[in-house]
């Protein structure tokens, strides 16, 4: 059986193709302004990697903020539901899932079967998501990769007073003028993101083990800050940005069986 | 499932929590009509259960949308909380 999961995030679209329960193709593309078109291109890319035709896919489930834009999808699932299924599939011991994407953060408590027990989503505050680190790295004229790495070299903690990304950028400029090191500014930014994510996660409670997924989990500065804030270590899967799409593809398998 | 809809911003945490196990025992769904701002709707969740949820259009503005029911002095009981026979709805602020 061949199924696909399409995760239409606010910044990138991810596709995972499963053949008999094994990942055979993946695709990723910037969402851009035309989500439906980008999803089609991304699905084609994943199908090519899997060596199949799109018509070979029996069931497609879409997830993510733009899930309703995918015309090829047979059905949809929320990001929370897809994250839970995908995470427990790759990390069966995970009971808390933290997903931090470009524009949103999610905290999810899951059962051993991959069912959502509790969840909280922060859809509003960009200062609690990846785009904040990205805009602050631009203010410091660094790549996001450099920005994440130098945070680990910081020697002191500086609180950021600004509560909003718009004001935070001018605070970063002020810190630079005050000759604060880029390392310390980077840590302050990551600590600020982590404190908002931690506040949301505490709402559902921490149960070990804690999985960290989403593209922001590639940022070592953020991972370090969140680990200090929540006083816990994380298990981070290799393909952390594809977990939502994987979850959707797994749900597609179940739904396909249900239709037979 | 405990579903927390809302957000954290610079001014605080604004979440409405719905214990959806309560929704499974409820046939009336009075919360939907009780809210003067139409914050609630009955949806089919990922597990094919009919449960109450905060509608998407209000999830990012709960502090403002719910303010009508939360006067600063002598606040009355919240209509949504009062309407739920399962005590499944709570506000974080």
List keywords for this structure.
heterodimer, A: 260 residues, alpha/beta, Nucleotidyltransferase, domain 5, five-stranded mixed β-sheet, 8 helices, 9 strands, B: 93 residues, Alpha-Beta Plaits, three-stranded antiparallel β-sheet, two-stranded antiparallel sheet
What features would you describe in this structure?
The complex is a heterodimer of chains A (260) and B (93). Chain A is built from eight helices and nine strands. By secondary structure, chain A is of the alpha/beta class. Chain B is an alpha+beta fold and 93 residues long. Chain B has one domain: Alpha-Beta Plaits (2-Layer Sandwich). Chain B has four helices and five strands, in the order ββααββααβ. In chain B, the strands form two sheets. Chain B has a three-stranded antiparallel beta sheet with strand order 1-2-5. In chain B, strands 3-4 form a two-stranded antiparallel ribbon. In chain B, a hairpin with a 2-residue loop joins strand 1 and strand 2. The longest helix of chain B is centred in the N-terminal third of the chain and has 5 residues. The radius of gyration of chain B is 13 Å and the shape is globular. Chain B starts with a strand and ends with a strand. The chains are: A alpha/beta (260), B alpha+beta (93). At the A-B interface, strand 8 and helix 6 of A face strand 1 of B.
Task: Assign the CATH topology of chain B.
Answer: Alpha-Beta Plaits
Distance between the termini of chain B: 21 Å
The structure class of chain A reads alpha/beta
Helix content of chain A: 40-55%
- How is the CATH topology of the largest domain in chain A named? Nucleotidyltransferase, domain 5
Strand residue content of chain B = 25-35%
Query: Can you write the helix and strand succession of chain B as a string?
Result: EEHHEEHHE
Number of strands of chain A: 9
Q: What Rg of chain A, in angstroms, do the CA atoms define?
A: 19 Å
Oligomer: heterodimer
In CATH, what is the class of the largest domain in chain A? Alpha Beta
Order of helices and strands of chain A: EEEHEEHEEEHHHHEHH
Q: Could you estimate the helical fraction of the residues of chain B in percent?
A: 10-25%
């Amino acid at each position: 059986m061949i199924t696909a999961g399409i995760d239409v995030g606010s910044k990138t679209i991810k596709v995972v193709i499963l053949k008999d329960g094994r990942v055979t193709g993946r695709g990723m593309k910037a969402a851009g302004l035309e989500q439906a078109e980008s999803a089609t291109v991304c699905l084609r890319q994943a199908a090519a990697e899997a060596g199949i035709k799109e018509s070979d896919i029996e069931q497609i489930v879409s997830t993510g903020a733009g899930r309703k834009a995918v015309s090829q999808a047979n059905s949809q699932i929320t990001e929370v539901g897809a994250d839970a299924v995908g995470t427990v599939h790759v990390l069966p011991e995970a009971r808390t899932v933290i997903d931090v994407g470009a524009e949103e953060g999610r905290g999810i408590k899951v059962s051993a079967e991959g069912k959502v027990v509790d969840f909280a989503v922060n859809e509003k505050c960009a200062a609690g998501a990846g785009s904040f680190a990205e805009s602050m790295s631009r203010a410091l004229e660094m790549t996001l990769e450099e920005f994440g790495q130098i945070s680990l070299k910081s020697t002191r903690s500086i609180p950021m007073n600004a509560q909003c990304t718009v004001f935070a950028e001018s605070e970063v400029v002020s810190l630079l003028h005050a000759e604060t090191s880029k390392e310390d500014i980077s840590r302050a930014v990551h600590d600020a993101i982590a404190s908002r994510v931690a506040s949301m996660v505490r709402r559902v409670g921490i149960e070990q083990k804690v999985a960290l997924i989403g593209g922001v989990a590639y940022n070592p500065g953020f991972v370090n800050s969140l680990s200090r804030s929540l006083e816990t270590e994380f298990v981070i899967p290799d393909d952390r940005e594809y977990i939502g799409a994987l979850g959707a593809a797994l749900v597609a398998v179940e739904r396909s069986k249900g239709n037979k | 499932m405990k579903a927390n809809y809302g957000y954290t911003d610079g001014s605080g945490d604004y979440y409405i929590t719905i214990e959806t196990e309560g929704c499974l025992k409820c046939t009336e769904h009075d919360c939907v009509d009780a809210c003067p701002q139409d914050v609630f709707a009955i949806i089919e969740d990922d597990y094919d259960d009919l449960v109450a949820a905060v509608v998407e259009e209000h999830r990012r503005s709960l502090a403002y949308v719910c303010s009508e029911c939360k006067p600063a002095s002598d606040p009355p009981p919240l209509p949504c909380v009062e309407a739920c026979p399962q005590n499944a709805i709570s506000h974080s602020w």
